[in-house]
Write a structure and sequence with these properties.
The structure is a single chain. This protein has about 270 residues and is of the alpha/beta class. The protein has one domain (about 5-255): Rossmann fold. It has eight helices and eleven strands. The strands form two sheets. The protein has a seven-stranded mixed β-sheet with strand order 7-6-5-8-9-11-10, with helices on both faces. A four-stranded antiparallel β-sheet has the order 1-2-3-4, covered by helices on one side. The N and C termini lie far apart (about 50 Å).
Length: about 270
């Protein structure tokens, strides 16, 4: 599966009668997580374990462009824990909870990807994210979905009912962010479902070609979507984060409805 000598660990998870391998490889100073195939699910540069190595993970952090006062994040899908780990390390005002169904992913993230232990600001719960969201309505300021297995997005996490539950899980000022694969033949179907769940208050942020696309959904339309305001926020954020926020603003402008001066979203 990986180049000779580069596989560091393998763990097998059995779920509903199926075996899923959790593999770790290392190439040129970057450690990678794989779930049953060669696809890189998560990556960590050994010399910078708290940095965001993959572009899409930096794209998920673009939620800060819309609200940098968030104090709680709920994530479904752990992988190597890149984004939750980044938030825990760089945003001390934020409490983060992660739901992960595969106990071996949790174990590997902690043993090989510097995932922190649970504390008063960080927790990982072994469980089904679909069930968790249904049981916790109106609880998340920011909800992040990054849940892939060896076959892609699990079927239960791309239905209209699931995206409806994501919207219901948000607080009144809440935000949703999901990592999708742009070349997925069902991408447009998933996007239409998200748009329905969030009453068209949706923005897309491509992070590669074709690559990953981060889709944002909003419970309420953000108060200020002027391009000049977004650029100003991006400049401030780039002073504290090694993330290309200014580039993300231009991509948001280019790939979403815009008047030329502001992003256009449905209002309540």
């Amino acid at each position: 599966m990986f180049r000779a000598g580069n596989r560091l660990a393998r763990s097998i998870h059995r779920h509903f009668g199926a075996e899923v391998s959790v593999d770790v490889s290392e190439v040129d100073g970057v450690r990678n997580l794989h779930l049953g195939n060669d696809t890189v699910q998560s990556a960590m540069r050994l010399k910078a374990p708290y940095a965001l190595e993959l572009a899409y993970t930096r794209g998920m952090m673009a939620y800060l462009l819309f609200n940098d006062k968030v104090t709680s994040v709920l994530a479904v899908g752990l992988g190597g824990g890149s984004v939750p780990k980044y938030i825990h390390h760089h945003l001390p005002q934020v409490t983060t909870c992660v739901i992960e169904i595969n106990p071996q992913v949790i174990r590997i993230a902690r043993s090989h990807f510097a995932l922190p232990d649970d504390d008063e600001r960080f927790s990982v719960i072994e469980g089904d994210g679909v069930d968790y969201l249904l049981a916790h309505p109106s609880s998340a300021q920011v909800l992040m979905i990054d849940a892939f297995d060896s076959f892609g997005i699990p079927d239960a996490m791309c239905t209209q009912a699931f995206f409806d539950s994501c919207a219901e899980a948000l607080t009144l000022d809440g935000m949703f962010a999901i990592n999708l694969w742009g070349s997925d033949k069902n991408f447009d179907v998933y996007l239409q479902r998200i748009e329905q769940s969030f009453n068209q208050r949706v923005l897309i942020l491509p992070t590669g070609r074709p690559g990953n696309i981060v889709v944002f959904g909003f419970k309420r339309t953000p108060a200020d979507l002027r391009i000049t305001s977004l650029r100003e926020r991006a400049k401030r954020l780039e002073q504290d984060h090694k993330i290309e926020f200014l580039e993300f603003v231009e991509k948001l402008r280019d790939h979403n409805q815009s008047s030329g001066h502001r992003l256009l979203l449905e209002t309540e």
